[in-house]
Amino acid sequence: MADNTPPLRGGLGELKYAILFLWGCLSPSFAHAWSEHGMLTAEAISGVSEIQKVTSVPGESLAGFLQAEQDTLMKLLAAEEGWLRRHQSHYPKRPDALIFVPTDDADLLVKRFLRAIRVNPELQFQTPAAASAKDILIAASDEPDQGLDIGLFENNGTAFGKEYGFGKQPFGNPLLSYGSQAPFHMGFYNEAWLSYQLAGYLRRTYPEFRIHLFRTLSEFSFQKGHAYWGYRFAGWAIHYIQDFTQPYHSTVVPGIGSARLLWLGVLDLFGNNEPKADQVQLVTNRHLVLEKYEAEIVKEAVTAKNSKSILLQALREMSYDEDYGRYYDGYARAKVAFESNWFANDTDAILEKTFPAKWVSDPSYHFSITEPDIQVLPALKDLPADQKAEMEEFLANLMRHFGSHTRNFLKSVQSYFQNS
Asked: Taking the complete model, does pTM exceed 0.85, yes or no?
């Protein structure tokens, strides 16, 4: 019998393009992982005495810090660049034009530093006269979601993006400002072999670069007696580690295998675009539902000072910290992202089981757009008690991961801030 199946236009190359397009559409709305990093960090470090006892750290402007240490900082950043090039295989080399060079001009010095570490150079960094160590860490752990990684790619429409050497944005819509930070806040290290063959751009994610850089700067700051920036850089670093505990930031499409994605790509290639678009919307909705649920239920417990909340207890629980071993340079990938990816399919399944079908199973519904002011918790009031408890316990487990990995990272710089 003759095979009447139409040939793939352009063969594997065009099929590959279809898969790339499918996955490339999945990520722009996932720029944020957990809502309220600062609130979660506060609970995670509430029992760390080494942090809690530091009640007053003198504030210091970024310019002041740089003016005091610019000569040694120039050498440190050169050494850091060398380390990143040797140890991170997909690290995009920093252009030589961005090498940090000392200057007597304070404003120019700040700009050169921000360009050297390749963050948004248009940000202004305010500092208090003094603050406790915990308050610095809490505030700093939220800062990477406040524009630090926006507009850094050459097709983001910014002048600095054209100079930073990151190339074109690997996935997501480059014209959506907050979408442009996604490759710095997501890491797909545990996908199937086929995924990387068809979508090599999945390897172009950079949270490990940020973690190592900011940890290096934190240690340097403490060693040189700049405790304020030691804590602040540490807070920046833990943000990216915390992002990895969100399963939608460690897994391309939770609940969907590579074969299914391949099939959606084939359908899209032959003009049947609806299945692909539907899958994109469902994954987007479920991610946003999880984030909204986390934000509402944790904030409710914090506001009520509910000491019996299993979520707050999970964030504070230290009994599992040592199970992960000590923090090391590969920890974020091998421990945090791996664990998060392991829970991704279960996360997707329990969201589908727990929340209203129109939110998590209806692709015509666009969560947070169809109903912009929607609240999640009221919709669960009629859910059976055991089902609500199951969902809360599942989130509590993710929060345990969040708390343990936050503390394990901070323990790795603890000796520096203890001696600062």
From this structure: yes
